Amino acid sequence: MLKDAARHWGALIFGMALAMTSGAWAQEAVPVTAPTEHAGKVPGAPQIVAPPVGSAAVPGWNNPPQAWEPLSETRQYASLPGIETYRLIQGAGREWRALRNGPITQLGGWFVVLVLAAILLFYLVKGPIRLSEPRTGRMIERFNAVERASHWTMAISFIFLALTGIVMFWGKHIVLPWLGYSSFSWVTVVSKNVHNFVGPLFVFALLVSFLIFVKDNLFRPIDWTWIKHFGGMFGRREIPSGRFNGLEKVWFWGGLVLLGIALSVTGLILDFPNWAQTREVMQVSNIVHLVAALAFIAGAMGHIYIGTIGMEGAYHAMRRGTVDEAWARQHHRLWYEEVRAGERPEKVVAHPQPPLRPARAHRRA
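Request: output the structure for the sequence above.
Response:
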């Protein structure tokens, strides 16, 4: 019975793969043939015939004309209720399309590539930031369970949104050429639905994370010194900081708050077109959403780098919630001193085991 089930599933998977591949091949242009009776040619031989005007087989068939007639954009009568049901042609759509498919697509792509190159160069030159002192074995709580849950919900939902957004935005340039039209259409449809349903979860995670971390992200005078000297990362000693340093606070207010609001508002406008917004609102929201998403992706790449391979012990802080005392003292000295003084809710959660002493031999009198 198991063999029959495996055989059926194997045939189904093979058939789906064959159908997707055949669909991709079917997208290639096929010449239209017609019999010919010219002298010196074999009767009935195929001859390429130009497709009729307006056919979808002609490249660029769906490009709008350079200028609409005045009557095309004039308000007309429509018996259907609803906003803009009377408007057949919206000329601003041409400007939105040219801006989205032109400068934003090209410049946005190069922007992301340059950020990746900068991170790679920083890693090759600087390398990971390692501890300057040996570990003590005493572990200090860095993030509790609620804080880690909100962060990972936001992070995982962002990964899904970034990947599906890249497919929808640059897919026809980087995915379509090797996947084909039929398979790419399936990938795009799945990406669109995943993006639409994960988006509200990301908005909720942003709000929860803001409420949890805002109290520790208020700027202090030492933060401006940290930002001015880039934390002393290129020097011999890091500048002291609180629970979050100056750069982390910049990412909190500029990324999570400012870009997060832009992404959330425009994303919800695009996700729910039944709110009766006009096409101009949808188009402006799309442009703002794309620009904010590109900036958020760039900042998140730097954040992910520092939180993983860029700094020793940083991933353990968010994965397990604790850091070694040496890590806290080196990277967040002010926070470490507050924890040791009992001024913070975080506590020392583990102590090293004392070394075993060999038993002393009893001396005889």
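DSSP finds eleven helices and three strands in the chain.
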